[in-house]
Specification:
Two copies of one chain form a homodimer. The first copy, chain A, is mainly α. Helices cover 40% and strands 0% of the residues of chain A. Chain A has nine helices and no strands. In chain A, 50% of the residues are buried. The interface between A and B is large, with 67 and 66 residues.
């Protein structure tokens, strides 16, 4: 009972989000909440070190060299923020709130509510998973090197295609999580897992709900996506922390079957060229068993 | 010759982007470029009207009631910005640059380079068309009403599925546009048009290149996507201006064939539920001709 009695405020406070204070509860105005002392004019007339501005983008240059995000705090916050505003709000506000609370400007000048539009693959359209989009937008805020940025974003999407969701087990059940018909406990969650094979909300949600024989708009679906949101937020922390530690992140290679597809359907071809980094077979099921012309591998 | 001799600087200046000044040329720091006079402390000690802050989101409340965007200027800027940083950078920087130049704060405090990550469906992954994502992120900055926001974003994605691309004919050819093998002139561009049926870069680009028998990484593809970027930026202006004029935007309904699909595959079903607002047939070609169980319409 004590576990379930935690309020969202308690949880956000534990997650280091007390400063931002309003994850999922509305826009905040906190540009001065953590203005560094350096912004005060020095007595000796030396140049003032200005507070980093939102326009001075991307923001890796404003982070201390030893700065790292806390995956545990971010995951728990993301899980709860899902219930306040959806998957994209979950990852985006949890990551940004943590950055604002622990790194200050310019993260604390950005609106925590910017990710709400990503819910359900952008306003329920089934496009890119909002949790992934939220993580990608945070990577985009931080990483300066375009090659590293591309590798990190590709990693997030390709890792998502292959991950078994959900896996996170929250420290405290959210008050909004009611009416479940499936068992999401640590002892049982693995039995609910499905590998989406696609980074699109449509395929990911529809496939999981079909496998578990639950509705795509019910409590079980929400519980799954809340935990998936925590999983994606955690992966985003891992990818960002590795980059901040100086590692050169490299996304996993495309799967062998898709590599075979694009070995003929190259972007440079003028006959059925393909522009994609996704797993082909997740959508093109017909091409796997009845490929036009009978060709399935490069001859 | 005089038409082609225009520099990008000339064009941006014409487009009202002279103040932002650096569309596609790097991040800018322009928080003070258009600080309104109201930010100065009044002599009589009355409260200071603060410059709108980035955290005071969304930004519709900072726009004058009569404010409207100029579609022509934004489209031409988007076309050229495509060549500076891709499709998402094209729409995002053109729209944001125009807002910064014509509406001031807080748009002029935001980095123009935030949309570069969206290139080619997010770092060439083939996910959501970057031009659409750029437009969506600008809608997200402005619109306060969640229902209107959802309708406007759905409109952009569904309109994109059904539009004939490309249609824009630039006022001045970009200096980077060289080596075309297809004729994109006003007299011929309609012959190159394809309806993508999907808002995903992968399907949109692959389908157009296949229909026109050109590579997916060549000059013709880029010329197509540069014009499509202008088309999407123009549609985004239309949608935003209609909203600012007080119209209640409503996205077009899902197509009849997909409506038939989701009449059985409802989100509420526990047997093959579907979460999607997309056109089903664009990807599920096999379900159109050989639906499992022989059912193709609701019985």
């Amino acid at each position: 009972m004590a576990k379930d009695a935690l309020t969202r405020r308690d949880i956000l406070s534990r997650a280091g989000l007390g400063l931002a204070g309003a994850v999922g509860l509305g826009a905040i105005g906190c540009a001065t909440a953590s203005a560094p002392a350096a912004a005060s004019a020095p007595a000796d007339g030396a140049p003032v070190a200005a507070t980093p501005r939102v326009s001075d983008f991307p923001y890796q240059k404003h982070l201390r060299p030893a700065y790292r995000l806390d995956a545990g705090a971010v995951k728990e916050a993301a899980y709860h923020a899902y219930y306040a505003g959806g998957c994209c709000h979950g990852t985006y506000s949890a990551l940004l709130g943590h950055l604002a609370a622990t790194a200050g400007a310019p993260f604390d000048q950005l609106p925590l509510d910017f990710g709400r539009f990503g819910i359900g693959g952008i306003e329920l359209y089934g496009s890119i998973c909002g949790a992934v989009l939220g993580g990608i937008m945070i990577v985009n805020q931080i990483v300066a090197d375009p090659k590293a940025r591309a590798a990190m974003m590709t990693d997030l999407m390709r890792w998502y295609e292959r991950a078994s969701f959900p896996s996170y087990v929250p420290a405290a059940t959210d008050a909004a999580e009611k009416g479940l018909t499936r068992d999401f406990s640590a002892a049982n969650v693995k039995k609910l897992q499905v590998v989406p094979r696609s980074h699109l909300c449509h395929a990911s949600v529809s496939g999981w709900c079909t496998a578990n024989r639950v509705a795509a708009n019910g409590a079980d679906k929400k519980a799954r996506c809340a935990r998936l949101t925590a999983d994606v937020a955690g992966r985003t922390v891992e990818v960002i922390n590795a980059h901040l530690a100086g590692a050169s992140p490299a996304a996993a290679a495309i799967d062998a079957a898709s590599a075979s597809c694009v070995s003929c359907h190259t972007p440079a071809s003028t006959d059925l060229p393909v522009a994609s980094g996704m797993e082909c077979g997740a959508c093109h099921t017909d091409k796997q068993k009845d490929h036009p012309g009978g060709k399935r591998t490069r001859t």
